[in-house]
Amino acid sequence: MIPEYGTSPGLEHYACMVGVLSRAGHLQEAVEFINRIPLEPNAKVWGALLNGAAVFGDVDLGEFAFSRLFEMEPENTGNYIVMANLYSKSGRWEEAKMVRDKMRGVGLSKIPGCSWIEMNDGLQVFVARDTSNSRSEELYMMMEGLVGLMRGEGYVSEDEMVLELSIEPAL
């Protein structure tokens, strides 16, 4: 960047590179890259590594990144959720529970998923499992139809697998 654009890379550039390496499965290379960063890695850098570790099921690396993130931003619920889900996917239910308990112990809770759709009659806001929208019944019927079509193509949701296998669900 310096010779081509006359500017030094900032932490956001380094975080992007860690994200690219991590998503490509080059987790060790991402760690080595972090160790060479001339600046102190911030939460975005460690978050990119945690997400990569979660994608590829690397619990040890996830724990390493999560410990750094917990020091930097103990109030970020996303970090707890990613780590708890990583433990859950690895069948490490006690550790997943401990992370969830730690999150609650700090006074945090998971924020429900939310979507916005602009329609002819204005902006519609939908919150996960909320039925207060005037068109909720119609929307849930439509969703059931779409899920039925997906099942016909072989899709099985994580919730269905959890029920079928009687395992503890991820956050």
TrEMBL record:
Record-linked InterPro entries: E_motif, PPR_At4g14850-like_plant, PPR_rpt, TPR-like_helical_dom_sf
Keyword entries, A-Z: Repeat
A GO term, aspect molecular function: RNA binding
Keyword Repeat belongs to the record: yes
PPR repeats: 76-110
One BP annotation, GO: RNA modification
Keyword Repeat in record: yes
Cross-referenced NCBIfam families: PPR
Record protein name field: Pentatricopeptide repeat-containing protein
Lineage, uppermost ranks: Eukaryota, Viridiplantae, Streptophyta, Embryophyta, Tracheophyta
